Structure formats: C-alpha cells, structure tokens
C-alpha cells in the first residue's frame, strides 16, 4: 500500500498540457504551489485558497478543479491542463482567448486563467449554451474588475465561432 | 508645425496587456522569481479586539525545522519609528502590535522560515499571553466622554473634531420653510482585489538600504512615511512595483505598513524575505473603507429648493489613524454639495478610533458615505413635500452655464451640463417607462420602487486636501501642501523607436494601451510602434509624492503628462527635421510613420528620431537632445486650502445620474433589479471600451456594497467575515445588465480633456438602489447592505404564532452585532443527584469530563486550567482552558464559567447547571451564553451556534458517563438520551 | 493558509483504506473530491495525521441501480451523478444537484463526501433525508446501513464512527404515484442554502424535508392538506425547527421561508402529480 510520509518529498508523475511532467512534493503541498513554484507555470493564480474565487481553476482529466483544493500528490497519473496549454502555439491565442481580448473581458487579468479553463471545459460539453447557463458557469468565479458582462459576451461569441456560426471578428 | 492627427485616442483598440494575461504570462508579484535563499514569512495575528500582551514565547517556534527568525513588536520597535499619522494626535501608530493589540487580525509576530508551510507550522507554536480588555466597536459610543481609551496617550478616542461654516447656514436654517433631517450609518466594506498583498524585501546593512518589491499602488507620499518609519533617508528606500497587479481599487495603498514589517523581518533574518498575504489575512486586516455615522439636515423651500446643508459626520478609522487617513473624510470636502447649487453649508467632522482594522483607500473613497446621506435626504425631501424626486433634483442642479463653478466649500467644478445629462437619461421615455412599470406592478400587488441619484465624481486629488483636517493656524505653521504632480517619460532609442514610462502603477486599467494611443498620435505612429512600461522603480524613475494609481487620476493627469513629454520631443524633432529638409519647423508634420515637410520632403520617423543618438552634431543650434524627455505636470487650479477653509479637493468633476427600478419580494427579502440606467459625463473619452469596463466594474462592486458586502464585527469585537463564504462578492449570476449613457463635456483643466470615471458608480449606485427599495416599501430608514433578512424586516408583517403546546417561542430579535451564542438543554443521568453534584464539584472529575482534556492544573478547589481538544466533525483545535465553579447551591445548582484560547481562536462563556431528581436518576438542565472570537469566529460564523451546541452536548454526555461510571455500555445509551433530550 | 503536515495513503484496495482508518481512528480522514476537506486543511481547522485517498478504487466509481435504489459509491463525483442515466429515476436529485456548489466544484466533489461533511444546509443530506435514503458504512470488520434520518446527528456530526468510511449512499427511486419538487433560497447562486425544501407528494401523503434551519435536515410527513390546514402544518414545522439568527439570515426569515417555500414545493409537486 503506497503510503507517502508527511516529511519526505515524493515524485509525482502526470501529464501536464499534453506532455509528461514530474514534481517533487510533500503530501501537503497544494497543487497551486506545485504548478506555480515547483514547475514555474505561474499562469494559475491563487486568490483565496479556500475554493471560492476560482482563480486557480485547472482541468484534471478534462474537468474543472480548484487547484487550491487539490494536493499535488493527487496529480499522480492524471491529465492536467493549465492556462499555459490553451493557445495553439506560443505566439497565438485560442478562439476563446481571442474573444476575451476582443470583448475587453479582462482588466487586471488575475482571475482570467481560471475562467478560461472553466469555460474551455464547459464549451466542449455544451457547445451552444444560452446566457443563463454561461452566467452560472462564470458564476463559479469571482472577478472584481469587469462586472462580468464582457466575459459573458466573450464566451457566447467564442461558442458561436467554435460552432462555426460566424462571429463579430 | 501642424496639429497632430488624432487617429487612435478615443478608439477601443485591443489592449496590449491582454495577450500575456490570457496566456498565463502575466508578471504579478508572486509570478516573479526571487533571489536564491529568499525566505518566506507568515504573520501571527491577534484573536482579540483589545488586549494587553503580557508575554510572547517564541522559543518553541524558533526550535522548529526551517525557522530562521521570529519578529515581535518589540523587535520592530527597536529598529523603526511609529508611522506618521494624517492628523496631529499623540498615538503610536505601529504596523505591528507593541505591548497591546487593538483589533482582531492585528499582526503580533512574524515567522520567517524556509517555506510558507514551515512558517505557518511555527505560528501555531508561538505562545502569547493576553489580558483582554473591553472592546469599543461603535464610533458614537467610543467618543463619548468616559469611554475606555484605545490609546492611553491620546486623551480620547475622538482624535479630530473640526467645524466648518460656508455662507450663512444658520441664517438659511432660521429662514427655512421646511427642514429635513436624516441619520444614516454607512457600513464597512472593501475593494477585495483578487490578488492579495505581496512583498519581497531585502536589506543591505553596509549601505543601509531597504529594497522593497511590492504591489503597492501609491500614493507615493507614503514613501516618505515608510522611509521615516524605517529610519533611512529617502534615497535608501528603494521601492519597486511588479509589472502586473491583480486589482487594487485603492486597497493596495494598505500594502505600506506590511512593507515596513517585511523589510524589518528581512533585516533581522539577514536574508531577503517574501510575504504573500492570504485571503483570510486580507479580509481581517488589509484595508477597510470607513464606516460613518452621518446626520444631515437640509433647509428647504416649499418648492423643494435646498438653501443649506448641515452635515455631522462621525468617521470610524479603526484602531489607528493610519496615513493618509482621515483622508476618506476630506476627499469629498470641496464637493459636499454634490451636483447641487447650495450656497450655505455647515459641516462638523469627527474622527473616532474603535477596535477595528485601520481604514484606508477603497474605490469611491468618501463618495459612497457622503452621497448615501445626501441622496437619501433628497429623496426624503421629495417624499415629505409630495414631489417627484426627479423634480427636486432638477430644482437644485447647478445650471448649465455656471462652469467653471465654485462650490460653497471651495471646489472648482471644471465643466458639465448637469440638467442636459439628467434630461437625456430620464428622457426618451426612460423615466416614464419606469413609472409605468411601477404602476403596473403595484396594481398587481407587487412591491416596486424607483430610485434616482445625481452625484459629482471627483478625480485627480489635490495632495493638499487632507490638510483641511488641521485648523488654518496649524496649516500656516506646517506650510502649504497642494498639487497633483504627474510624471511621464518618453524616450527614443538608437533605432529611432519610442518608449514610454510612467509612475502610474496600473492594476489592470490598461494604462499601457492608452499611453501607446496617446503618444502614437503625437508622433504620427501606430500604437503598436510605441512600447510602454509602467513598472515604477523609485530608485531611478521619475516620480513624486502624488505618483500612483488612485483618485482616478490616470486619464486626466498621467496620460496628459505623457502627451506633454511626447509633444515636447516632437517639437524638437520637428526642428531637427526642418533642418534636414531645409524647411520651417512649422511646416513639418508627423503622420503614418513619416515626418513630412510641406512641399513633399519626407523621411521615415526613425531616420530623424535616431539622429540625436548617432549624429548629435546635426541637431540645429539651440535644439536639445531628442533622446529622452520627462514631463511633470501639476494643475495650477489645485491650490492649498485657504484661511477660510475653502478646499479645492479635486481637479476634475464628472457627473453621474443613475435611475433604477427594483422589485422586492416581501417574504424572502430578495431585491430584483428590473432596470438600471447610468448616465456619465467623464469629459473626453480616451478609450470607450475601458470606460465601459470601469463603469461596469464599479457598478458590480456597488451592487456588492448594496446587497452583500460588510466587514462585520460582533459587539465584542470578534470579526465575522473572514472568508469569501461570509464576505460575499457579487458573481455573474447577481450582476444584471445596465444601460450606459454618455455626455461629453471635456475638462478645460486637463491636457486631454479627460476626467476620471472609475469610481462614480461606487458613489451613485448604492444610494440609487437604497432609494428604490425605500420607494418600493414606503420606508425611510435604509441601512446597507440590504441582506434578505434586513429587507424582509422592513416590511411589517405579523408572524403566525407557534402552535399551542409546541413550547417554541419567538426569541427576541438579536441586536445587530450581538453574536452571543445562547442555548439550553437537559440531560438525564442515571445516578443519584448527590453523585452528580460531587462529580461537578470535583475538579479532577470535572477536568476529565471536559471534552478532549489532556492535562489539568488545579489552582484551587473551584478553579483549574487544562489543555483541551475541542471541535466538531473534522474541525478540531487544541486550546488552553481556564475553568471556574461559582454560585454553588448544593446539590441543586452551580455556575460553570471559563474561557479557552488557542491557534483557532478564543471562546468564553458561562452556564448555569441545575440538578433535579428524576425517576431513576438526575435531570441535569443547563443554560449557557458563550462568545467565540479569533479565527473560528471569522471563518466559521455560519456554523458556530451549532458547533457550540454540539461541544456543550459533548460535555454533558461526558458528565453523565463520569457520574455513573460503573454501568456497562452506558455511554452509548446516554449519548442517545442526550441527543433526544437536548433541545 | 497552508495545511499542516500529514501522511498520504493511496489506497489500492478497500481493505487498505479501512485498515488505515482502523489503525488511526480519528486521526485519519478519507479524501475523495476534497471540496470540503481541503478548505479545512488549508485553514488548519482540521489537522489529520493521515489522509486516505480512495479515488483509485474502481469499485467505488460506478453508480448502480439496486432494485428501488440508486446506489452511489464513495468515488462518484456530483457532476457524474448529475450526468448519469440513473438520475432520471429520481427527479428530486435531478432538481437539487444543480444547486450544489458550482460547476467547478461539482466536477470534483463527491456525493458521499457531501454526506460525510453533513453541513446543515447541504443538498445531498437533504435529499437523503427527504427520500428516506440510507448511508452504507463499512469498517475493516463489518458493514452496516444507517437510515439517513439517523445518520445526521448534528451539525457536521454523523453516526459514522472514526474507523468507518461511507462506502455508498442509496437514494430510493421515484415511487409510482409520487411527485417531487425542490427549491432553495440562498444569497447568491451556488451558496449554501438559507433554506432548502424538498417535497414528495403522493395521493394520500406529503413528505416535506427542510435544510438550512435545524442542525440537520428534518423531514415531516403529513396527510394531503390544503388551505389553512396546510398553513398550520407548515407553521408548526417552521417553529419546530428552532431556527437561529446568523450572519446571512434571521430566524424569522428562515421560518417565513419554510412556510412559503414549503408550500411552493408541495404545490409544485402536486401539479406534477396532477
């Protein structure tokens, strides 16, 4: 029975944005700290560390997870995706990211990564959401700058483009 | 030289900031690496609102692995001076408690360790012995004569009391046909940026230099406060700001006291130290807006014309008058009459200290407090006179032709057309439609109300307004303070491309994009040709005390300074180009990346702009270098407060008129916003997308202030909203759409005609919604936030009585802030009464029935201390308990009282236990009152009552077990009985 | 805000998990989705010595139908239940689950974890009590099934012993001739309910369960009532729950909501039945 000692570092192996990754972690190391300070992926932000604000939302096996409510050791064997893996290439943005830029759906950008990850997962299962559903999904995040309207508009616009319904580009 | 072609300013260009932020490449403070060997800090905070620190034992913490240093208030005091306060009062303003704590969450010690995890482990090992004192929470009570003192040397908790009179308020009130009065209590709330505070500090003992990287937002007048506190000359305090900051809304001004703490920790540890504030710390102790009690009277004609106002404001600045406070009280001083033409004004401003966290900058800064009183009063006047509130507003607005307009209290309003703005917003059938919706709803028996608010939004603060807290004589002695110095630097590199730096420390507002637009237009370049950097370094950048991101000063002041610097460079480049083209400088123009002379000669911009690097000899006689230009700009209008206390507190004055319709469900207290219209005049709009974003963002924060957000304290000073589950921010499901309208009257006082826009809805929306709810329910007394229970309670509805014989009774509604846990219950113990009594009286036995008791020290037969583990479910904490027995009435009754303290907080209470003989044993009945403080109260409020009940249930279960120890299997049975008998 | 240190056991069999619980008692906690446990760890409200991760046990991941019950083992996430085919058999669950936290927490949080946490406002305990469901507990030595009404003994307190883990919860499927309805009122969407109400209405009976008011979800059964008789029954229920004031709502508001929402869910279920 694998028992990881509290005081030792343990090698955690998983897939990160499509590539094999490993990080050394004590059992209590939060996934946020492992990603940000262990692996240097600082795009996942920490806003509350109690699971409410959503800034740290990542995808684990394709579904959203608050990284602050996840232990690094729980990554073992999982498929983990972060905001750094969203764009098709380093010098481009995804359709969703472009829609956020077009709609001024971010000001300080601190909460944005988490919202992008939630919505990215959501649109894969719900390609044609109405505004009410989008507000419920975005409602799992706190943004203190925008007042949300531009975020909702960006998500609906991105969904339309991804469906091939044309766009406001 | 021809006028610039304005191509980009005024357009909603995509932001240059966005691509990095969208792809996880932002550079917020915790995203930047640190020097190898940098340590991490965690802060121990007070669980008490008011207590003397008897001792701090750090030895166990220092012995833990990875711990390098533990810094206490005494260590801090040995290396620093108290922070300067904004007013003259004999109070030691330390950033960490020295000898005494004065609010829940006040720093008590700093642990510096190899990781944050290890530092937090050590926090739990620091033993602090406190002697609690009574806490003062209500600002009105705290300034009463004879109230206990927060600071023994201050001479009172009333630390400032100033009266002002403008015009002839006494005469106006004496002559008034009607006088209206309102008293409002504006609550404490905060900006709650999504990124918390962050600091990395280092100290060079040889040069005596502190180097502090912090997501501080300014104003940099605080730099002088910090340098003095750290006892170094200004040039030995280097502050650097990271490229990105995750929102501030004023709040990150409050980074400053922590910068001093972490700097000292680094000095003591001998290594760089990093501290990232966590959310619990942020909510309990970062920065709160002031709560304020205002009584406002108006002298009014029968037609609704206001002839005089009389403000009595009591400002609660918390436990320390921390600079720049009491600025919240004075920021609005020039525009206390808002959008109205009122010649006679009396003001009394008092500042109270209470056992709450210190206050500071929060978006709206003084505006929400003032306008809540003023616009509630305007509605009351309309109701009292039987007039439409819109009519009362119209009657009092400053007329269109009056600008620039000098207010009674000294502000010089720059521009505007208030009547046109109100007419535009209310016109096009909008107000009529709201009225029709209200009529229809009311006809159907629904509660619908309309709210209005007209406010003036000040921006670009005069650094001198705060000196209005001093008397004219005191000001004369101190020397005048004024201005709003903004700076920007435009540089040209050897390839001829343009860079811009400013001291504006943005926190997400898109300064880089707007500066690129503005400067590109000056040079005839595309914004993408201009590179902008906003990360300020006080060691080498151009800055002044007014630098920073506050009072909505960017568009009006900073963008203007950049425009000035660029224009000066362009004018010199025109002369260089003229020499090259054998033309006159006046015939040179800049467009499409080229510099062109009338007649056709032209060259790419870079060919001319780089000449100053490569061939300075070709610059014409008398033309200075074109490599770098720094402009400093301060408006001449911002003069110091004068001998008559006239205060021109801000340079720019935008106008907002809000109008909304709400429907209230009288059972649930839910308020639905049916329609919300907001009209803005913020002068010239530099970037429509950003202006809309600022309005929507402020509106959402204002909805929070209206319905959800309060930094709540119990009467005993316990802090109750320590998590985002209790301090509620609006989410996407709570923010309705709003109609945004604009009227543009450019400011004649700013280089680009722009005014601030980011704070207005924080001032107008809370009172607009309050007015609508008041209208819907026909009530006068509205207090924010409008929680469901509070709204439902505004409706007088008799409650169905409890059924006969159910034993249930309506408990009297608790006083606001009274969070005392009360309970009662009874348990059956199958043992004779004398045996139960003996167990209660036997300290050893009693100790053994306290749940989770580890070790007992008997101080007397009725007094002992113990280590206990208490909790429910997985929530467990270790506490020191001090328990006493008193009021003994053998074998009938006894009082058990005591208190516990531990890393999770404190608790205290008393219970009366009565024993009565019952069939086969004894019935033990109890009533208790308890209060819980510290971390548990701050984060577990929703569950505390039940938790206390469960723990007290555990106690009596154990009592039953102990009193009849020799009955096999009894424990489980008793527990069952207890649960059954426990009500 | 970082957890205190603990050992972490990745259980590969149910026996390993139970063995760990047996040897550590109250110092061990099961971690599944972690949505309730991790905040408590981060705030150091809880400092277990050992966490036992059960998400690697395939047997705990599959929802199954056992006769008239939907059996949801300990590894099933809330979103998985919501998306499952089995949930169609119990409309109350389908109505209540979208109110459970947020999209981003349902995707991780487990159904059994919510039952184990026993928050007095939570939807899963409410549904279990409303439907007369059961909680299946197991130790290294024995298994037992506890009626939901007996399982929730107080605020965040259950009948589960320290060496026991919840193996599964079972929700009775919809009974023929019964209709169900759910409503909750919270300050914001996704917040813990100020009051939540779940009703079952059959031709001759009404079951009404309420969360957010007493320390545990409470259920009352009465005959089909209407008009003032129903008002009286709801009023008696509202008073019997001994509502309290807290930061988010007053006792009075909670009683008002029990009366108003209780009636609303009963009427909604009656409409479905008709």
UniProtKB/TrEMBL annotation, chain A:
Protein's UniProt keywords contain Iron: yes
Boundaries of every 2Fe-2S ferredoxin-type domain copy: 10-86
A matching Pfam family: Fer2
Keyword Iron-sulfur: yes
Domain of life: Bacteria
SUPFAM superfamilies named among the record's database cross-references: 2Fe-2S ferredoxin-like, CO dehydrogenase ISP C-domain like
Keywords: 2Fe-2S, Iron, Iron-sulfur, Metal-binding, Oxidoreductase
UniProt cross-references to InterPro entries, sorted A to Z: 2Fe-2S-bd (IPR002888), 2Fe-2S-bd_dom_sf (IPR036884), 2Fe-2S_ferredoxin-like_sf (IPR036010), 2Fe-2S_ferredoxin-type (IPR001041), 2Fe2S_fd_BS (IPR006058), Beta-grasp_dom_sf (IPR012675), Diverse_Oxidoreductases (IPR051452)
GO molecular function, one term: 2 iron, 2 sulfur cluster binding
Gene3D superfamilies: 3.10.20.30, [2Fe-2S]-binding domain
Protein name: (2Fe-2S)-binding protein
From TrEMBL, chain B:
Every Aldehyde oxidase/xanthine dehydrogenase a/b hammerhead domain range: 23-134
Keyword list, A-Z: Molybdenum, Oxidoreductase
SUPFAM superfamilies membership: Bet v1-like, CO dehydrogenase molybdoprotein N-domain-like, Molybdenum cofactor-binding domain
Low complexity composition-biased segments: 804-814
Region (Disordered): 798-821
Keyword Oxidoreductase: yes
The name this protein goes by in its record: Xanthine dehydrogenase family protein molybdopterin-binding subunit
Pfam families: Ald_Xan_dh_C, COXG, MoCoBD_1, MoCoBD_2
GO molecular function: iron ion binding; oxidoreductase activity
Automatic annotation (TrEMBL), chain C:
Residue stretches making up the FAD-binding PCMH-type domain: 1-176
Keywords annotated in UniProt: FAD, Flavoprotein, Oxidoreductase
SUPFAM superfamilies in UniProt: CO dehydrogenase flavoprotein C-terminal domain-like, FAD-binding/transporter-associated domain-like
Domain of life: Bacteria
SMART domains: CO_deh_flav_C
Stored InterPro entries: CO_DH_flav_C (IPR005107), CO_DH_flav_C_dom_sf (IPR036683), Diverse_Substr_Oxidored (IPR051312), FAD-bd_PCMH (IPR016166), FAD-bd_PCMH-like_sf (IPR036318), FAD-bd_PCMH_sub1 (IPR016167), FAD-bd_PCMH_sub2 (IPR016169), Mopterin_DH_FAD-bd (IPR002346)
Molecular-function GO terms, alphabetical: FAD binding; oxidoreductase activity
Listed name of the protein: Carbon monoxide dehydrogenase
Record organism: Xanthobacter tagetidis
């Amino acid at each position: 029975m694998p028992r990881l000692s509290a005081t030792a570092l343990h090698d955690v192996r998983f897939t990160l944005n499509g590539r094999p990754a490993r990080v050394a972690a004590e059992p209590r190391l939060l996934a946020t700290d492992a990603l940000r300070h262990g692996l240097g992926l600082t795009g996942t932000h920490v806003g509350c560390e109690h699971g409410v604000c959503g800034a740290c939302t990542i995808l684990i096996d394709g579904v959203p997870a608050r990284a602050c409510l996840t232990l690094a050791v729980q990554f073992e064997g999982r498929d983990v995706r972060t905001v750094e893996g969203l764009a098709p290439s380093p010098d481009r943005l995804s359709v969703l990211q472009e829609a956020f830029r077009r709609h001024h759906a971010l000001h300080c950008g601190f909460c944005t990564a988490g919202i992008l990850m939630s919505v990215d997962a959501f649109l894969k299962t719900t390609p044609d959401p109405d505004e009410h559903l989008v507000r419920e999904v975005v409602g799992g995040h706190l943004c203190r700058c925008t007042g949300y309207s531009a975020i909702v508009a960006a998500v609906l616009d991105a969904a339309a483009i991804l469906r091939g319904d044309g766009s406001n580009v | 030289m021809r006028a610039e072609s304005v191509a980009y300013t005024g357009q909603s260009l995509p932001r240059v900031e966005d691509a990095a932020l969208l792809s996880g490449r932002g550079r917020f403070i915790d995203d930047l690496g640190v020097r190898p060997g940098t340590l991490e800090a965690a802060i121990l905070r007070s669980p008490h609102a008011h207590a003397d620190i008897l001792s701090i034992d750090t030895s166990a913490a220092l012995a833990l692995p990875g711990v390098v240093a533990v810094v206490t208030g005494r260590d801090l005091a040995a290396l620093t001076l108290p922070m300067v306060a904004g007013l003259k009062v004999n109070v030691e303003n330390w950033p960490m408690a020295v000898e005494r704590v004065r609010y829940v969450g006040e720093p008590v010690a700093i642990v510096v360790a190899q990781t944050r995890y290890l530092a937090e482990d050590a926090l739990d090992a620091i033993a602090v012995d406190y002697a609690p004192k009574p806490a003062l929470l209500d600002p009105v009570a705290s300034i009463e004569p004879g109230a206990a003192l927060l600071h023994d040397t201050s001479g009172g908790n009333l630390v400032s009391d100033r009266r002002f009179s403008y015009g002839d308020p006494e005469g106006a009130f004496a002559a008034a046909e009607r006088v209206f009065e309102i008293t409002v209590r504006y609550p404490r709330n905060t900006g709650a940026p999504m990124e918390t505070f962050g600091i990395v500090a280092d100290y060079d003992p040889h040069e005596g230099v502190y180097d502090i990287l912090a997501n501080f937002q300014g104003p940099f007048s605080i730099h002088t406060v910090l340098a003095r506190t750290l006892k170094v000359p200004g040039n030995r305090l280097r502050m650097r700001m990271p490229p990105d900051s995750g929102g501030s809304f004023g709040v990150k001004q409050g980074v400053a006291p922590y910068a001093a703490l972490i700097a000292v920790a680094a000095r003591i540890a001998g290594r760089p130290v990093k501290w990232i504030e966590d959310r619990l710390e942020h909510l309990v102790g970062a920065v709160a807006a002031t709560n304020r009690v205002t009584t406002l009277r108006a002298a009014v004609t029968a037609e609704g014309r206001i002839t005089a106002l009389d403000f009595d404001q009591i400002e609660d600045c918390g436990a320390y008058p921390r600079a720049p406070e009491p600025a919240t009280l004075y920021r609005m001083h020039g525009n206390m009459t808002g959008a109205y033409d009122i010649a006679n004004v009396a003001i009394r401003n008092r500042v109270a200290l209470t056992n709450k966290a210190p206050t500071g900058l929060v978006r709206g800064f003084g505006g929400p407090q003032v306008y809540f009183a003023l616009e509630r009063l305007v509605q009351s006047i309309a109701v009292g006179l039987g007039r439409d509130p819109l009519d009362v507003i119209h009657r009092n607005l400053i007329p269109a032709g009056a600008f620039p307009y000098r207010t009674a209290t000294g502000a010089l309003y720059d521009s505007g057309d208030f009547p046109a703005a109100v007419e535009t917003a209310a016109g096009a059938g909008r107000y009529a439609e709201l009225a029709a919706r209200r009529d229809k709803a009311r006809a159907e028996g629904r509660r619908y109300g309309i709210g209005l608010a007209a406010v003036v939004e000040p921006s670009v603060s005069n650094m001198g307004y705060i000196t209005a807290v001093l008397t004219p004589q005191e000001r004369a002695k101190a020397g005048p303070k004024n201005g709003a110095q903004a700076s920007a630097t435009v540089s040209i590199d050897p390839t001829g491309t343009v860079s811009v730096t400013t001291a504006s420390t943005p926190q997400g507002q898109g300064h880089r994009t707007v500066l690129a637009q503005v400067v590109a237009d000056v040079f005839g370049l595309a914004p993408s040709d201009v590179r902008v950097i906003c990360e300020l370094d006080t060691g080498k950048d151009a800055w002044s005390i007014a630098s920073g991101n506050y009072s909505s000063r960017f568009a009006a002041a900073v963008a203007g300074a950049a425009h000035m610097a660029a224009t000066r460079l362009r004018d010199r480049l025109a002369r260089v180009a003229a020499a090259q083209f054998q033309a006159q400088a006046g015939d040179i123009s800049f467009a499409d990346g080229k510099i062109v002379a009338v007649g056709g000669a032209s060259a790419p911009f870079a060919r001319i702009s780089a000449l100053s690097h490569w061939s300075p000899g070709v610059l014409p006689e008398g033309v200075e270098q074109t490599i770098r230009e720094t402009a400093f700009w301060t408006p001449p209008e911002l003069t110091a407060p004068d001998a008559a206390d006239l205060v021109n507190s801000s340079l720019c004055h935008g106008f907002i008129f809000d109008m909304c319709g709400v429907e209230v469900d009288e059972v649930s207290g839910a308020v639905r916003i049916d329609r919300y219209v907001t009209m803005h005049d913020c002068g010239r709009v530099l970037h429509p997308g950003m202006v809309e974003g600022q309005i929507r963002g402020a509106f959402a924060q204002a909805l929070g202030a209206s319905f959800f957000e309060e930094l709540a304290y119990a009467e005993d000073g316990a802090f109750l909203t320590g998590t985002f589950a209790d301090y509620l921010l609006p989410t996407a499901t709570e923010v309705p759409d709003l109609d945004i309208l604009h009227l543009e009257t450019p400011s004649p006082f700013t280089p680009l005609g722009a005014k601030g826009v980011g704070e207005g809805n924080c001032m107008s929306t809370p009172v607009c919604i309050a007015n609508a709810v008041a209208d819907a329910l026909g009530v006068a007394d509205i207090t924010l936030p409008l929680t469901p229970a509070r709204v439902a309670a505004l409706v007088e509805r008799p409650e169905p009585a409890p059924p006969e014989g159910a034993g249930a009774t309506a408990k009297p509604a608790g006083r606001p802030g009274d969070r005392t846990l009360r309970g009662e219950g009874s348990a059956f113990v199958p043992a004779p009464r004398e045996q139960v009594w003996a167990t209660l009286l036997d300290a050893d036995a009693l100790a053994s029935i306290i749940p989770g008791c580890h070790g007992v020290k008997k101080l007397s037969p009725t007094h002992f201390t113990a280590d206990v583990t208490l909790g429910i479910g997985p929530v467990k904490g270790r506490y020191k308990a001090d328990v006493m027995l008193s009021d003994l009435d053998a074998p009938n009754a006894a009082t058990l009282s005591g208190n516990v303290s531990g890393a999770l907080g404190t608790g205290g209470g008393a219970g009366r236990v009565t024993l009565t003989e019952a069939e086969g044993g004894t019935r033990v009945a109890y009533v208790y009152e308890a209060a819980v403080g510290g971390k548990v109260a701050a984060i577990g409020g929703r569950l505390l009552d039940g938790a206390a009940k469960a723990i007290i249930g555990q106690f009596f279960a154990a009592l039953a077990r102990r009193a009849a120890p020799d009955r096999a299997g009894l424990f489980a049975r008793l527990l069952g009985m207890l649960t059954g008998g426990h009500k | 805000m970082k957890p205190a240190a603990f050992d972490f056991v990745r259980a590969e069999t149910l026996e390993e998990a139970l063995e760990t619980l047996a040897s550590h008692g109250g110092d061990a906690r099961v971690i599944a989705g972690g949505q309730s446990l991790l905040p408590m760890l981060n705030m150091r409200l809880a400092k277990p010595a050992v966490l036992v991760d059960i998400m690697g046990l395939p047997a705990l991941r599959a929802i199954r139908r056992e006769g008239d019950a939907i059996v949801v083992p300990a590894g099933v996430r809330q979103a998985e239940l919501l998306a499952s085919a089995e949930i169609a058999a119990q409309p109350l669950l389908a109505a209540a689950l979208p109110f459970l936290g947020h999209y981003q927490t349902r995707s991780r949080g487990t159904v059994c974890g919510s039952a184990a946490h026993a928050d007095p406002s939570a939807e899963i305990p409410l549904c279990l009590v409303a439907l007369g469901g059961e909680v299946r507990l197991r130790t290294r030595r024995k298994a037992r099934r506890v009626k939901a009404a007996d399982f929730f003994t107080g605020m965040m307190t259950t009948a589960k012993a320290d060496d026991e883990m919840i193996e599964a919860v079972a929700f009775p499927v919809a009974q023929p001739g019964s209709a169900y309805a759910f409503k909750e009122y919270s300050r914001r969407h996704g917040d813990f309910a100020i009051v939540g109400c779940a009703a079952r209405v059959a031709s001759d009976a009404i079951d009404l369960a309420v969360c957010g008011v007493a320390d545990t979800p409470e259920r009352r059964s009465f005959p089909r009532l209407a008009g003032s008789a129903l008002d009286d029954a709801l009023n008696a229920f509202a008073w019997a729950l001994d509502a309290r004031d807290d930061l988010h709502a007053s006792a009075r508001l909670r009683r008002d909501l029990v009366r108003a929402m209780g009636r609303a869910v009963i009427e909604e279920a009656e409409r479905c039945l008709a």
